[in-house]
């Protein structure tokens, strides 16, 4: 797998600063700084003054407010994003789970804080997108960790070659979000817990499409966990699905990511293949999507399938089934052409926004 496609767009800031090199540096420095500060602090005196000193009621109320709304505190979003990256790449690397994991979901949990609610006293629509950032980060860091590390060391591994120079391209590995669409089905009240089930929907020559279902905690009842670490959680095995579960979904979102090496767009199959998620395919996975392919067997898309049965035809069928939805999502990019550059009549200008 050595093909890459050169885009017209310039690399983003994250690729310029070498994001994947910053994570192992910033994390230990921040942890060391926090640890040193904790070691030098007289906690007994500090806690005594905090809970018994003058003004204690206001401090306690502020602490309680912060704990109940920690998701919306300054830099909380950054911490929520860096945690899965650091954990899945440096603290506990997931094993290569094989092709069965390619379209399987990863579950992340959250709740609705008071600061996330709108005037209807339920979760504001705008706040879903921050949660989606966290859920997608867990998914890709977990199932694609091996591929990310391999492509990040491309100068050594020479997995991706510049099609012009036939040499490994210069620049850092980066992951960029292209767009997100979210459909809202049911409101979520304050301090209600929920789960985000994110999985790969499909991929093409440029994009990886991810679908996320936001559902009540406990709605899903997994019958199997692919990572042996979680097999002890198989308490719901054999239980019947929750009645009318389709009507209980809070929201459904679809997102698309592109992988970059400097200015080059890396074919998603390169990263997925290096992560052990793609079985061997005649001619490889970098074939043109428009080229004719043999007729595929008619598999049951959602049946329980053993690892040995996940051949390239079954994966390709799942990929094509997902593309039926992804193509409609992709078509929304054409809406930018409907902007006329402000050449027509304007209603007005208002602020602040």
Automatic annotation (TrEMBL):
<dbReference type="InterPro" id="IPR051490">
    <property type="entry name" value="THEM6_lcsJ_thioesterase"/>
</dbReference>
<keyword id="KW-0472">Membrane</keyword>
<keyword id="KW-0812">Transmembrane</keyword>
<dbReference type="InterPro" id="IPR029069">
    <property type="entry name" value="HotDog_dom_sf"/>
</dbReference>
<feature type="transmembrane region" description="Helical">
    <location>
        <begin position="20"/>
        <end position="39"/>
    </location>
</feature>
<keyword id="KW-1133">Transmembrane helix</keyword>
<dbReference type="Pfam" id="PF13279">
    <property type="entry name" value="4HBT_2"/>
</dbReference>
<comment type="similarity">
    <text>Belongs to the lcsJ thioesterase family.</text>
</comment>
<protein>
    <recommendedName>
        <fullName>Capsule polysaccharide biosynthesis protein</fullName>
    </recommendedName>
</protein>
